[in-house]
Amino acid sequence: MSNPKEIKAIDGFSRVADGDVVSRATNIQVAMTGNGNFPNSPVDMAALKTAIETFSALIAEALDGSKKVIAQKNKQRAAVIKMLKLLGRYVQVTSDGDMAIFQTSGFEAAAPKTATTPLTEKIRKIVHGSNSGEIDLWLKAVAGASMYEVRYTPASAGAATAWTTVPLSNVKSVLALKGLTPATPYLIQARALVGSSFTDWSDPISFICT
Description:
- This protein is of the alpha+beta class.
- It has helices at about 20-30, 45-60, 65-95, 100-105, and strands at about 125-130, 135-140, 145-155, 165-170, 175, 185-195, 195-200, 205-210.
- It has 4 helices and 8 strands, in the order H-H-H-H-E-E-E-E-E-E-E-E.
């Protein structure tokens, strides 16, 4: 019987850059090494560490454009990802719906296909886009509004970071946010132009781009 509270680990690396695979894999390897929450790991952490280091070295070697080295690098990338996928499944089952335990693994939790976070008075719906690195959203109509603005920023960047702002002429069309970083949580807000003044920004919604 499946657990309805199961937390899914983000293990989709097909569109992730080589360097990001190394970074994410290393974070997971460090977090899982000696982690008492996951005592029966199906992947040996020392072996994973060696696999990551080999992959990292091949990335550097492949910069000269050697087809042979590039092929070796791609093969090693696939091996590392296979180990991470196996680990991700194990972490999902072992966490048993406990987010506090899950987060000690170094994996990031995948968002559901539609946002479960309560939406704001200005944002009606948020879903993953058709391509990796995209988020689609729909706004709610505001009485008297002549246009709208949506802004977003990586959640991990902190309050001091600059937001990217996108205008929208009406709420009937989907707004596609593109060029985002996969596996990254984003904060998203919206506001409307009523007369000559903008409303306040809506409360931020956190949504993980895939």
